Amino acid sequence: MIDPGLPSTYAFVDKVMGEIARMHRRAGAPLRILHVGADELAPGAWEKSPAVQGEMTRLKLGDTADLWDHFYDCIAALARGHGAHLAGWEELGVRKMAVRGRYNPGPNPHFHGRGFLLYAWNNLPGSEDLAYRLANSGYPVVLTPATHLYFDMAHSRDALEPGHNWAAYTDLFDVFSFDPFDITRGSRTQNLQGLTPRGRSNIAGLEGTLFAETITSPERLGYMLAPRLIALAERAWAPAPPWALTSDTAAAQAAKSADWARFSQLVGRKRLPELDRDLPDLSYRIPPPGLVIQDGAVHANHAYPGFTLRYTTDGTAPTLESSEVTGPITERGCITVAAFNTLGRSGRASTIDNP
Is 290-354 a domain of CATH 3.40.50.2300? Predict the structure, then answer.
């Protein structure tokens, strides 16, 4: 925790900014935007500092929310001295405000017009429209909603899937389904703000976020990032799809299903084979196959068209020598199926007992 009541805090920040700016100049890429975090200040942290109390008295500040404004005024001035504007998580430009008897995060007007770039992550219940409220109020906003673009979230509820679940389970379809200009669609929360024309012009981009404290190997990194990054690129750079342009719920659902069929074909038959060719060491996630028993036979499918499914009947893991799934599996036993990419790498297998 940085104490805003200590003069050494500002000397330290200025020194760090100067070193970063110097590295950028040497690289031929002058520093223009500096992300300073500005999130997760623990409640009560500043209030218990004698230096903070003295500074608030000296500046005649009413509470630590006012001190926050003063602190980031100073930090922004230091950044400008090194040729940069501030960026930070949405908390940088947020204040808790009373709304219908409850204190909710809302845009802080103090920093309007300062060029602060906010990375909006919080679209959890009660804050689904916070990114839009910030953009509508004048802040440039990068959308990185935790429920759709936090790539440290687990892909599914499967206990064997790595990742967190405090925000959501986020599979490829969830990333694909993200509509940057209608992120509140389907929410049960009432009276949410939509984007105004001004707000739309303030959406600066999208970010896929991966916090790496649980990433223990390059293999895990590839697994968490890809192919979700492909869906992020689709939403960030492709034109808005038809399902995002209609308010007719049934029509939107039908259009999304058709678009997902197109996209999954593209991923499975083209994009992932391209990664196999160009980045053979990238261990992107290969989902386990889906299995179901119908009329005494095991039916298998896979999320990525074009992958080869192979199976065994004794519960052992399939290999490249195992039988290929070409239709319903009529053999009896412990049926285990895995999907293989063009390099022969398999994902986690699925098993079902067909007695």
Answer: no
As given in the structure block, the two tokens for residue 338 are 């895995």
What is the distance between the alpha carbons of residues 214 and 208, in angstroms, rounded to a whole number? 16
pTM flag (> 0.90): yes
Q: Per CATH, the architecture of 7-242 is what? A: Alpha-Beta Barrel (3.20)
Does residue 21 contact residue 84 with C-beta atoms inside 8 Å? yes
Domain assignments of the chain as residue spans, ordered by start: 7-242, 290-354
pLDDT in tens, the chain (355 residues): 789 999 999 999 999 999 999 999 999 999 999 999 999 888 888 988 999 999 999 999 998 999 999 999 999 999 999 999 999 999 999 987 655 555 678 899 999 988 899 999 999 988 999 999 999 999 999 999 999 999 999 999 999 999 999 999 999 999 999 999 999 877 777 788 999 999 999 999 999 999 999 899 999 999 999 999 999 999 999 999 999 998 899 999 999 999 999 999 999 999 999 999 999 999 999 999 999 999 999 999 999 999 999 999 999 999 999 999 999 999 999 999 999 999 999 999 999 999 9
Residue written as tokens 């084979």? 273
CB-CB contact of 228 with 175 (8 Å)? yes
